[in-house]
Amino acid sequence: VLTVADAGRVEEGAVATFAIRLDKAVDNATTLRFSLGGDIAADDVGTPTVTINGAAVAVTDLGDGRYSVSVPAGTTDGIRVSVP
Known about the structure:
The chain has one domain (2-83). The strands form two sheets. Strands 1-2-8-4-5 form a five-stranded antiparallel β-sheet, with no helix packed on it. By secondary structure, the protein is mainly β. The model has no long low-confidence stretch (mean pLDDT 91). The protein starts with a strand and ends with a strand. It contains no helices and eight strands. This is Bacterial Ig-like domain-containing protein.
């Protein structure tokens, strides 16, 4: 089970940060795919950044508001997606 915490109320121009938690640690490096959607215009958001346990990880832009990151084996929490 993957849980994404609500970023709460985010004022225009502020960064929205979402905490992600996995119910069970991944056995091997795993690709996590996510998308930005909802009632937003493309120019309302910037490129998301991701940290795992405080370390920045590479984010791959898949196009159309979709992205992916590699999550190392053993990870359950400490994943943060920040969207400017």
